Amino acid sequence: MLIAELEDQLVDAKNVERGRPFVCPGCHLPVRLRRGSRVQPYFAHLPGALCPLQNEAESQQHVQGKRQLMTFFAAWGQPELERILPKIQQRADVWLVRKQPIALEFQCSPISRAEVASRTAGYRQLGVYPMWLLGKRYAKQRLTWRTLDRFASWLPGWGLCLLFWDVETCLLRVDHHLCQVATGQFSWGTSYLRDVTDLQSRSGVYLATPRPNLLAFRRQLTADLQRESAGLRDVQEAVYLSGHHLAGFPEQLATMAVTPPGFGKGLLLWRVVMTAWLFQTKQFDEQEVHRLSRAALILIGGQLQAVRFNVAPALQRAETTLLQDWVRLGKLERRSQGWQVVGQPQWTADLAAYLVRSAHGSRRGSKW
Ligand SMILES: [Zn+2]
């Protein structure tokens, strides 16, 4: 921590000398001033102190970053280092005073999902907007659902974002328009900002998302099934019980649509499972669609709710589109009570059968 209390005054570690009775402004236990030749000065609790506002252990990166973020975000509001929020027992790394205050959290070390969720909920309870800026450790990692689930949030003009702070370059990295293509891969754009006003004024450039490669996807499914890949076995079983093979899914399920991350192995697999399930029956209603839709999402490894964004609206859109597609293709009919199955989508037995058929189909100019 960079701010401590000394005789009822808040003091900054860079302005004081060692040997005074500093206490933590959160728990009022004694803290010690640490300074070295390489690390900027900071205060540390004594070993074993149980501070309810303990954030991550100070590192050179964290100390330096907090001070840099104060400068970088100053145009957005008067910055304050380490504001204590007694009501929610939290300490914001940097606080920006404005109509809706912003709490900046510079996250350099690992943190559990539960911890991010509880800190986020705390800030929301006070009407404060939390912004997580991720340190080097995260910047170097391959993008995973784990990180998206904890930290991704919507920013106007930028879509779903992850923010990174680099203490060496003092640049804000914005990974923006984060989404998932139908075959499951994440897609996003990256911008580096020198000035915080760019975050407000300039929108992230719109990106064309890659077109999913359907044949590669069928091959991948087949290979994963042969390897008995754990996550896919359950999906294949579900589809198999309806008499089909995953890799032989109907061509018409192909889609260029993207979803927010949270769709597990991707929208396409969700459409495959849903189609297998819905066409097992003669008719179904909206409630049944919702029930199956959620079950299919979980089956493909998806999740309805991330800490800071909701996947449910996208799932709803996916339901509507899938039903419209099959109605348009003449396999479903809309009735007052729901939908009536009036035809069966065409599945092939497996990948091999698909390849044979598409070899014939290609002469007619198959779309995918
Ligand atoms: Zn404390």
Structural description of this entry:
- This protein is an alpha+beta fold and 368 residues long.
- The chain folds into 2 domains: 55-201, Trna Endonuclease, Chain: A, domain 1, CATH 3.40.1350; 214-364.
- Helices cover 33% and strands 23% of the residues.
- The chain is built from 11 helices and 16 strands.
- The chain has helices at 60-72, 113-125, 136-140, 145-151, 197-201, 214-226, 230-240, 267-278, 286-299, 312-328, 351-361; strands spanning 3-6, 9-12, 31-34, 42-45, 78-85, 90-97, 102-107, 129-134, 153-155, 159-166, 171-181, 186-193, 258-259, 283-284, 332-335, 338-341.
- Strands 5, 6, 7, 8, 9, 10, 11, 12 and 13 form a 9-stranded mixed sheet that branches. The chain has a 3-stranded antiparallel sheet with strand order 14-16-15. Strands 1-2 form a two-stranded antiparallel sheet.
- Strand 3 and strand 4 form a beta hairpin.
- Helix 8 packs across helix 9 (286-299).
- It starts with a strand and ends in a 7-residue tail after the last helix.
- The relative contact order is 0.08.
- The mean pLDDT is 91.
- Bound molecules: zinc ion (ZN).
- Zinc ion (ZN) is lined by residues 24, 26-27, 29, 45, 51, 53.
- Residues 24, 26-27, 29, 45, 51, 53 line the site of zinc ion.
